[in-house]
Design brief:
Order of helices and strands: HEHEHEHEHEEHHHHHEEH
Shape: globular
Strand order of the largest sheet: 1-3-2
Strand content: 5-15%
Structural class: alpha/beta
CATH class: Alpha Beta
Number of strands: 8
CATH superfamily: ComB-like
Oligomer: single chain
CATH topology: putative 2-phosphosulfolactate phosphatase
Radius of gyration: 17 Å
């Protein structure tokens, strides 16, 4: 799953520091109760951060916030999807798209028995309805590009997303002028956009198990032996 601005980017940064990140479908009291039940800290809204509560969806803040072993990180899109997803869930973004694709292939995913779905989380309009998100389309396209390069066949829809990523002259700038990035910039968090558009700089792959994302690294030697024509169609 892909939520570039900002859930999966934040998860990649936090788990890369050794934190376990618990997704939450709900915020407020429900998320607080989840944190208490799991002995975790609770992330707050960006503008509510303080010295006592330095954790939020801000990847920039999570890169320098005090270490906490477990963190509940609510969000209305990426975190909500992860919290209710069935099956193995990997958090991918522009920072770790290659690593995420490589890890999936090295563990036997991308076959008819173990298919892969790449989910662009999207965003919301002010009334709460869903809207497409360019940054998530590009992030999903990055993952699909690496899967296609490894020999996987893509569905028509997935192929279009991969081609969109491949055809982008400047992925970073495309994200910077997206609606989501402009919203973050307007409230003073342009640094989060800059962290999100750093392409392929992170080898960490957050994998959801027993209710929490933790970081793993792909076995590049293994994927070199397993990737190829055996990969099945991806959607």
């Amino acid at each position: 799953m892909v939520d570039v601005l900002s859930f999966t980017t934040a998860v990649t940064v936090a788990t890369g520091r050794g934190m376990a990140v618990l997704p939450s479908r709900l915020s407020g009291p429900a998320a607080a109760a989840l944190a208490v039940a799991n002995g975790a800290e609770l992330a707050v809204c960006r503008r509510d951060m303080s010295s006592e509560r330095p954790w939020s969806l801000s990847p920039t803040a999570l890169a320098s916030a005090p270490f906490t072993p477990r963190l509940v990180l609510p969000s209305p899109n990426g975190s909500a999807i992860a919290a209710v997803a069935v099956g193995l869930v990997i958090a991918a973004c522009l920072r770790n798209a290659a690593a995420a694709a490589t890890w999936a292939l090295s563990h036997g995913y991308g076959t008819s028995e173990r298919p892969i779905a790449v989910i662009a989380s999207g965003e919301r309009w002010p009334d709460g309805s869903l809207r497409p998100a360019l940054e998530d389309g590009l992030g999903a396209g990055a993952v699909l590009h690496h899967l296609r390069t490894a020999g996987c066949r893509l569905s028509a829809e997935a192929a279009v997303m991969a081609t969109m990523y491949e055809a982008a002259v400047d992925v970073g700038n495309a994200v910077r002028v997206s609606a989501s990035a402009l919203e973050l910039t307007a409230i003073g968090f342009s640094s989060d956009v800059e962290v999100a558009v750093e392409l392929e700089v992170d080898p960490h792959v957050p994998v959801l198990a027993e209710g929490a994302f933790t970081s793993v690294r792909p076995d590049y030697a293994l994927v070199a032996r397993t990737a190829g024509p055996a990969c099945s169609e991806l959607r």
